[in-house]
């Protein structure tokens, strides 16, 4: 089978997988919207019945009902249950009406975007497990509103996109960023953070930038993120930050074309692979490869995750750096796998 045929079949599988993903997404969202509406109606009925009974409710019951209304996004007027406590109208943010299912992890997930363990990927010497939204960078979570619409910058890496080389690289950098942030008491982690951000005078708010990374990982894993953060993302105009960084590099004689996005890095790698290598590594990305091929690919993903710099709107790598690094990786795996070298010579 020619490389063109392999590529055509891979694209066809991708289109089919994306279509099925959208169907499952729509069905799941509709189901959760219906269930959420039923829940809201039930809580509203209970609130109305108790409010009209004239009975004095115990404080713990009032607290429980208040929490239920908060979760369901139901507002209460001054004349309802809590009027004897002197509370006025309370507006609470609405909870999500649905979420998308989590996408499956790749076979190479331990090195890329699995459970987020630094010890699995050997990214930080401490092997510190990475907290997610439940107890990590976030403050005042009760004031945030969850939404099911993904940030535009991660859409290419969702669904079938997680099974691409570019998607694998992108999620590896997101997980790695969070891991080293939560291990930042380690000198090794501090060095990595400095390299990631210190290259530009515009990347001063590390806490905010790492919160963006965490929100994206959380969306991938849970199917939602927090509206407050997504709005903050828009207000801070991350694209403007990228433009400022690129302008600084341009003034120093380093045009933006020198700095490669995950898609461009993936293209550089794939262009250097033989047909057999592409087939075998595509199988790894799709969760169908061998353990041996996974182990061959792992060092490349780990190396990329450990050696990117932040451009405000995503990770970047220097073009020369990529060509040299990928060339070294290929040289090593072709020593381990003579069949790759033979395939290269025969092509």
Give an account of the 3D structure.
This protein has 347 residues and is mainly alpha-helical. It has a domain at 145-339. It is built from 13 helices and 5 strands. It has helices at 3-53, 59-72, 118-121, 165-181, 187-197, 206-222, 227-235, 238-251, 262-272, 275-285, 291-306, 319-336, 338-346; strands at 146-147, 225-226, 259-260, 309-310, 315-318. It has a 3-stranded antiparallel beta sheet with strand order 3-5-4. The chain has a two-stranded antiparallel sheet with strand order 1-2. Strand 4 (309-310) and strand 5 (315-318) form a beta hairpin. The longest helix is centred in the N-terminal third of the chain and has 51 residues, at 3-53. The chain is globular. The chain starts with a helix and ends with a helix. Residues 80-98 have a biased composition (Basic and acidic residues). This is BZIP domain-containing protein. Residues 22-49 form a coiled coil. Keywords: Coiled coil. Residues 78-101 are annotated as: Disordered.
Number of helical regions: 13
- Helix-strand makeup class: mainly alpha
Strand order of the largest sheet: 3-5-4
Radius of gyration: 24 Å
Quote the beta fraction: under 5%
Overall helicity: 55-70%
Report low-confidence residues grouped into runs of 5 or more.
77-142, 342-347
Q: Write down the oligomeric state.
A: single chain
**Element string (H = helix, E = strand):** HHHEHHHEHHEHHHEEHH
Terminal CA distance: 13 Å
Query: What is the makeup of the main sheet?
Result: 3 strands, antiparallel
- Coarse shape: globular
Give a count of the beta strands, DSSP E runs of length 2 or more. 5
Keywords: Coiled coil
Biased composition (Basic and acidic residues): 80-98
Protein name: BZIP domain-containing protein
Coiled coil: 22-49
